[in-house]
Amino acid sequence: MPSRAPFGLRTRLIAAFLLVAAICAVSTAALTYRQARSAVLTQSQDTAVSTLRDQLETVALTLPLDQRQLQRVVDEVGRRGKPHPWVVFGEYGTLRASSADLGSPVSDVLTDTLRSQVSTHPHGAFQRVTDDRGEPYLTIGMPAVFLHNGAREATGAVLYAVMPLSTEQQTVDAMVQAAKQGAVPGLAISVVPALLAARSVLRPVRDMRRAAQNLGRGRLDTRIEVRGADELAGLARTFNETAGALEESVAELREAEARARRFAADVSHELRTPLAGMLAVTEVLDEDAEQLDPDTAKALRLISAETGKLAVLVEDLMEISRFDARAAGLNLDDVDVAEAVGKTLQRRHWDDERVSTDLPEGVRARLDPRRFDVVLANLVGNALRHGAAPVRIGVRTAPAPEGERLVVEVADSGPGIAPEVLPHIFDRFFKADAARARSAGSGLGLAISLENVRLHGGTLSAANAAEGADGFGGAVFTLDMPLEAAP
Amino acid sequence: MSLPLRRPAVAAALLAPLLAATACGIKPTGVVESGAAARVAVARAGGSMAYFVTPDGHLVPAPQPEYTQGGPRGSVIGLLRGPGSAERDAGLGTRVPVTGEEAAEGGVAVAVTDRLEVRLPFPVAGLDPLGRRQLVCTALSTVDPLYEVALRGTDTTLPPARCDAGH
Amino acid sequence: MPRVLLIEDDPSIREGVALGLRRRGHEVRAAGTGEEGLALTDAFDPELVLLDLMLPGINGVQVCRRIRETSLVPIIMLTARGDDFDIVVGLEAGADDYIVKPARTAIIEARVRAVLRRRPDTPGRHGVEHHGELAIDRAGLTVAKNGERLALAPSEIKLLLHLSAAPEQVFSRQQLLESVWEHSYHADARLVDACVRRLRHKIEDPAHGPRYIQTVRGFGYRFGPL
């Protein structure tokens, strides 16, 4: 659409409907009115002209006329006006006579055009005129002819009848009034079918919009009720088919993904039991290795160390699987944030000059302490491993419309994260440095951290700090979650 | 969808002539001819007629009972007498020289061949068209109007003409 | 050396854990099913039970309940992380602590020692204290209500002793986990909550609200004020 109408579909539909109704009403009324008006006038005019002719034909004239004879004729004809009383004027040469008792013997509404028409061309003629007050009159000119020498010949006498058309005027006015009174309520009444029609068109449109929104929100089983067999029903059917196809392919994709995840979970689960047994005896290997020959001892220590790593990896995989299966839940507790951060660092022996903290006192948060510890340990461990000391931890609270937020920033002093790596930093098993094929972590640390933060209803983001005056220009991970997590 | 609302000009174009055609009330008209004129009975309609001129320039017949038997010549003599008192009261005049009855009796002669030739005792070249029509119609008032009349004055003879008073 | 009864259906874990603990000087008897474990509880008279929650036949929670009917022996559950519901049910059934598998022997032994430590660290307090209807004997590690001795599991009496040593002082759950259970700070607060519920059930008057162990919303628990 080249231009967008400024009103809604409903308004436009109703307006269009009313416009059509108005055009129909007005044109019908107008044509009827025209027809009726012309019928009324023609009737009156024809009656008046033929009456004047008939009346005039009953008189006998003696030529040349004198004033008395002209007055007699005028009086006689003037009494018999039809369909309404008229005033008759007679003209012969310079003689003038009028049937009116008072006033001029010459009418002021007769036009010279009518006079010259009837005198040069002796036939009956009429003309509708208005006087200076706008009142309509019918003026009729009727020349008197006689049969002379086998031909009709003008006697020179002409009778003019002047008839007011006030009755016709009233009739016509009444018709206009009736048309107006009929059209306005008619238009008002046609609002009702207009609304109904708009509704019947708009309801499917509204349904469809709602369905499309639902579909967009992921409710793929959304369908529209198909009513009738019109274009909208066809559209609804197409929508349903499309939604069905979409649902099917999404279901297939999800099924495939779920299978893959179940497989990973199953594998981890199956690995866990033997690992539990192995892990319990690694110490035995470590202790006894000293009494064996160096090669065997080296082999045993390797097995012991790798078993430990494997156990961590399997645990992390299990953890991720639980997130994927949405089986992870929060065990919330009220904690002092500064204390919690301090304990995390202390437990991992990071409470030295490698990590500096900026912890406001007395900030209490409701969170899952174990998951918070996992997140923080991952972030700090990551900063120490891939960035460089000193690592700075900042904790603050921030007001937000839906409740206060807890913001934790972990910044390192390393070179930062390469821009092309940044979008993938939370991907599973993502290795920023291809050369470092195996790191100390499982490769799931940041992914698990992200999931843990999400579980708290928060966000975890990575960025590079601008090179500041304090020399910090490394990676900055920002954790932003509600101060009070919802269970 | 092409809603009329989107094309207000179209809608207006549709409505405007419609509304114009239905202007309210009774409008004046021009002169409309409507049927024949009224045919009245006129006394002595079959006799001799002299045609006089109304102030607005039309010919009006006036019976000449004294010359009913005189044929075309009598009629013309009647015309040359000029309008009588009744005619003058009605404002009728003549464009033909009034010679008086004696001069007319002596000076008017009618010859009938395939047409009427009316000899007149005055020059005819200077007659105005109304005057010529008066003479022609008066001459033909008792004879077949299909005759042509040639007016022959003291100076010249005018081309033959027919009376156009009757219809 | 402590006698430890290990009830675990998986042979590799059973043997691995038993081996590890034996090397550290524990006397270990292992059972593969709940029924066998219950029989050994009577015969072996263990000082501590390591109980796997996922057992064939009667499961770990039922075994825990059956042991608690007759004995106050410390019980540590062996669980996998994610078996959250089972952990809660096990704690409600009277278990004192739990260990998430897989775990190194050092971890398991630390838990065992912590549970077996009979006395919380409350210096300078001896003799019988009276708090309302409760008579707490810190030396004898017994608690009586209205003169009637109460049967409290090891974690329950340790919690009560710790809280009552400093009446009206508020302890957060994490603090209690550290001092009573000797867990790390970030451990599972449900251990505390379940233990408090069990303790209240035994010492509080059910007709009224908690009187001795009171909840301080947003912080934790305190003893009294009475």
Q: Can you give a write-up of this model?
A:
The complex is a heterotrimer of chains A (487), B (167) and C (226). Chain A is 52% helix and 18% strand. With 487 residues, chain A is an alpha+beta fold. In chain A, the strands form 3 sheets. In chain A, strands 3-2-6-5-4 form a 5-stranded antiparallel β-sheet, with helices on both faces. In chain A, strands 8-10-11-13-12 form a 5-stranded mixed β-sheet. Chain A has a two-stranded antiparallel sheet with strand order 7-9. In chain A, β2 and β3 (95-98) form a beta hairpin. In chain A, α4 (166-216) packs parallel to α5 (231-289), α7 (337-347) crosses α8 (369-386) and α8 packs antiparallel against α9. Chain B is α+β, with helices and mostly antiparallel strands and 167 residues long. Chain B has a domain at 49-152. Chain B is 28% helix and 19% strand. Chain B has helices at 8-21, 71-80, 85-89, 101-107, 129-139; strands spanning 32-36, 38-39, 41-42, 49-53, 59-63, 109-112, 116-119, 149-152. Chain B is elongated, with a radius of gyration of 27 Å. In chain B, 35% of the residues are buried. The radius of gyration of chain C is 17 Å and the shape is globular. Chain C has 8 helices and 12 strands. In chain C, β4 (75-80), α4 and β5 form a beta-alpha-beta unit. At the A-C interface, α5, α6, β7, α7 and α8 of A face α1 and α5 of C. β1 of chain A pairs parallel with β3 (41-42) of chain B, so a sheet runs across the interface. Chain A: InterPro entries: HAMP_dom, HATPase_C_sf, HATPase_dom, His_kinase_dom, HisK_dim/P_dom, HisK_dim/P_sf, Sig_transdc_His_kin-like_C, TCS_sensor_his_kinase. Chain A: Its main location: membrane. Chain A: It is found in: Cell membrane. Chain A: It catalyses: ATP + protein L-histidine = ADP + protein N-phospho-L-histidine.
CATH C-level class of the largest domain in chain A is: Alpha Beta
Portion in beta strands of chain C: 15-25%
The largest sheet of chain A is:
5 strands, antiparallel
CATH architecture field of the largest domain in chain C: 3-Layer(aba) Sandwich
* Tally of DSSP β-strands of chain A: 13
Number of helices of chain C: 8
